[in-house]
Amino acid sequence: MPADLVLLSARLLDPGTGGFLPHTALAAERGRISFLGDDRDARALAGPGTTVIDLRGAVVTAGFTDGHLHPVSGAERTLGVDLSACHDLDAVRAALATAVRELRPGAWLRGWGLDPNAFGTAPVSYAALGPVLDAVPALIDLFDAHSALASERALELAGVDGPRAFAQGSEIVCDAGGRPTGLLLEDAACELVEAVAPRPAEAEIRARAAEVLAAMAASGLTGGHAMDANGDSLAVYAALEADGALPLRLRIAPWCRPETDDAAVAGLIALQGTGGALWRVDGVKLFMDGTIDNGTAWLETPDCHGASRHAYWPDPQRYSRVVAALHRAGVPTATHAIGDAAVRHVLDSVEQARAGGGDGVGGTGAVRHRVEHIETVPDDTVRRFAPLGVVASMQPTHCCEFTRADHTDNWSRRLGEERAGRAFRCRDLWEAGARVVLGSDWPVAPYPPLQVMAGARHRRPADLSLPPHGPEQALTPLQALQGITVSAAWAAGEEDHAGRLAVGHRADLTALADDPLRVPDTELAGVPVVLTAVAGRVTHRAAAL
Question: Do the bridges between strand 370-373 and strand 391-394 make them parallel or antiparallel, or are there none, so unpaired?
């Protein structure tokens, strides 16, 4: 049977070993790599319907998988004005003023990517923005996607006029007089205003998601671990796949929040394994805390403002029982845990779940649980990941883009010197034997995988304008490559057929103009992506090919 795809004149880099294979050609059939050898033999496998591409010496490796991203909800979130490049209040005000001038009378303004560092040492509030949003209903997502800033008019329309109690770790921030400042912390608070803001039409969300996913493919991604199924996400994936417009292989983890009762947990279990050829529900996403920047993380001792003292789950033991139930059902969990107390509790819960029954660590059917983010933890916590078989899912560009080596940023000031000095410990976790998976958490940080790998290697912002934060935590070139290939496959329980270049493995492939292991750290993000393929189908092809 003829091959579906034949790649010629290639350098084949196996991320499992970090070495080049003694071959120049690859063929794929029925979604799997079916041949590795020389160009002449590969050409013989081509038929009338085969896609044959001469790569002219490009480096082909296993396809890049983003270990943590939000394709559809992020596509919707980023429809508003982009504030991610605004580093001070003057820039924020100017961008908002431009957007306001383009609004229809009475229309809502949506924005995203607002960095609290732009406010300096002042509190994040609508008052700090001045008159630019006067009488304008506006809701602006902060960069961490765990908080939002609402204008005075938006609060009025939502009926938010003071503090409220929530069934999760959320807060309407108020001044000393009990008046809302506009800052809304965590989902339950944000949803009060989101409920009255108009949503984009379904067709607009689908079109935007298709645009984002195509750009992700062009950046080198062939897959992603999608950490939500919010809104109509699953229907969007199904529709895009039906139209032949889904260019990534996606593993999706719907949310389980503190208010999720036993019946809803059973529903999440029943949802597992559903999906299509390129997307499926596989896991559940939970939250143990919020963010350090907002003071909603869970720390062993409070931050320098006396905040970050509580778990996102009002009853952390309820969280532990839910993890145990999911573990018994064979469902992997991915828990957002940023602070040291949150990470400790997640590891305690996994340890208790394993002791209580299930298939344990190491077996073929072992449930592979994950911790997402892990921004500040002590040595004894680092050492617990490997024995428990818990994946460390890290986003190095969060450190690169939002913190500073001199600790003058909001994140570091809140933590203080000691805890800020143990930030994003990618290298320590790796050397302690943990499986470290790399991702972007897009739209929190940019998704291009070469930028993610570069950040893991140099620990500096993309524009290289600042010195590295924690250079001792930098990964080697091979570790960074494995973090987005081999480790991602292991986290999904797919290491026997994904994440490497081998016959029988998935034909999910990324081709680059240069060797990612030899390109200098500061130049890696600029290496051209010449081709991506998923299941042997080309999803991006450079114009020069």
Answer: parallel
